[in-house]
Design a protein that fits this description.
single chain; 399 residues; alpha+beta; 9-stranded antiparallel β-sheet; two-stranded antiparallel ribbon; 11 helices; 11 strands; globular; binds ligand L6N33NVT; binds fe (ii) ion
Length: 399
């Protein structure tokens, strides 16, 4: 979670291909400098080298969903669906009507930075009769990790859809339209809603917080850093080149247990200060953590089982991913505790060099894991973005 790639930051950085604007015309940085843009009018183009929703700042709301193809849809039906969905996503991102199945749920709202991101699960390739195109990283499912308690009905799926927007109605509207436009071709398998900090909630752009109260998202790889693209974007197979892989996990937080822990112990579980996210080895939020740093008594400043030590690329042969998770809260569980946690989303060039080794280690050695339950999971190939006039997955479905 975080403001690391906020719209304002991106506009300021002039990052190519990451244009974000206001409906009616993409604004240059001078226009942004003139004053904050009205929230509803912010647009994120659907078309581009990468799909929208990977590099942009997190919106306040997310709808996550997976769809399964209907029997008989096949490759032709899938092509039809991806063309239809891409056209709709592009129109909605521009703030236009959905066209087919427009239901007026978000009639008075602007696009609110809407992004729609599509991913393909391993099962899609068999369903659509295109197993020859299965990318190697999807050939085996994610391994079982110690402590996993996965609900298969809320995991996996042929098609993954991530819809982000700075308004809940706008995000819901997009999901509902996509669902109706899929009728006869694909059906909703699972759906979850999440949230992040609302733009303007803090006086200045700041990294977001999760439901444990931690500053979350500080040490994400950033566009422009050395090797960023190689860490996040896949180099093949051909149809996926420039795309990515996304790992999704629904991770419930045992908040009653967590909140019983005094703040200094919570900080030692993560390895960072709760107030400002600074590493316990010293400095401020963005000071690199010193994993060798010691306290006056000779103990490690960042404990051996602290989350940031166990998860760090330095502890995992360089394994890295771009985390873009959202919080969720879904009422009460039968035992009266909150059903709340993190919809963990991480984009990476190769899950075998990203999520898998890190989660293997976290499940064994991370002191945060005793406050978490992994309840749902998915791994999807995320095709590159579509050019104007094209659709997501075109190189796969017409190649
Ligand atoms: C397998 C990967 C990871 C899972 C699952 C995961 C779950 C998880 N994390 C937090 C809270 C924080 N994580 C932070 C850093 C961090 N987390 C991962 C990976 C996973 N986290 C990485 C690679 C890192 C960066 C480590 C580093 O190099 O410093 C932080 C610190 C702030 C930050 O850098 O973002 C927090 C806080 C929760 C609550 C959670 C599951 C619910
Ligand atoms: Fe983490």
């Amino acid at each position: 979670m975080g403001e690391g790639f906020s719209r304002r930051t991106l506009l300021g950085s002039g990052a190519a291909g990451l244009a974000v604007g206001v409906a009616g015309g993409v604004l240059g940085s001078e226009a942004v400098a003139a004053g904050p843009e009205p929230l509803g009018r912010v647009t994120v183009p659907f078309h581009g080298a990468q799909q929208a929703g990977i590099l942009q700042g997190q919106q306040a709301r997310v709808q996550l969903a997976a769809f399964d193809l209907a029997a008989g849809t096949g490759r032709d039906g899938l092509r039809q669906l991806m063309k239809r969905w891409s056209g709709t996503a592009a129109r909605l991102a521009r703030g236009e009507s959905a066209g087919e199945h427009e239901n007026q749920i978000a009639l008075d709202a602007g696009p609110c930075a809407l992004t729609v991101t599509f991913g393909f699960g391993a099962s899609l390739f068999a369903e659509a009769g295109i197993t020859g195109q299965l990318p190697p990283a999807l050939a085996a499912p994610l391994p079982d990790f110690p402590g996993d308690a996965l609900d298969r009905a809320r995991s996996d799926g042929d098609l993954w859809v991530q819809i982000g927007a700075d308004d809940a109605l706008v995000a819901f509207h997009a999901l509902r339209v996509l669902q109706q436009q899929a009728a006869g071709l694909a059906a909703l398998r699972w759906q979850m809603a999440g949230f992040s900090r609302t733009p303007g909630a803090t006086d200045r752009p700041m990294t977001g917080r999760n439901l444990m109260g931690q500053v979350d998202g500080t040490n994400n790889p950033r566009p422009g850093q050395d090797g960023f693209a190689a860490k996040v974007f896949a180099d093949g197979p051909g149809w996926l080149a420039g795309g990515s892989y996304v790992v999704f996990r629904r991770i419930r937080m045992l908040l009653d247990n967590w909140e019983n822990l005094p703040t200094d112990r919570q900080e030692r579980v993560i390895g960072r200060r709760k107030s400002d996210g600074a590493p316990l080895s010293g400095g401020g939020e963005t000071t690199p953590a010193d994993l060798a740093g010691q306290n006056a008594d000779g103990t490690l400043a960042i404990p051996a089982d602290a989350h940031i030590r166990v998860a760090a690329p330095a502890s995992n042969g360089g394994a890295t991913m771009l985390r873009r998770g959202f919080s969720y809260q879904d009422g009460l569980l039968p035992d009266g505790s909150l059903d709340a946690g993190l919809l963990f989303i991480a984009f990476q060039a190769d899950p075998a060099r990203g999520f898998v080794p890190v989660q293997r280690k976290l499940a064994r050695a991370d002191s945060l894991s005793r406050f978490l339950r992994h309840e749902a999971s998915g791994l999807y190939a995320v095709p590159p973005g579509a050019p104007e006039g094209g659709y997501v997955g075109q190189a796969l479905l017409e190649g």
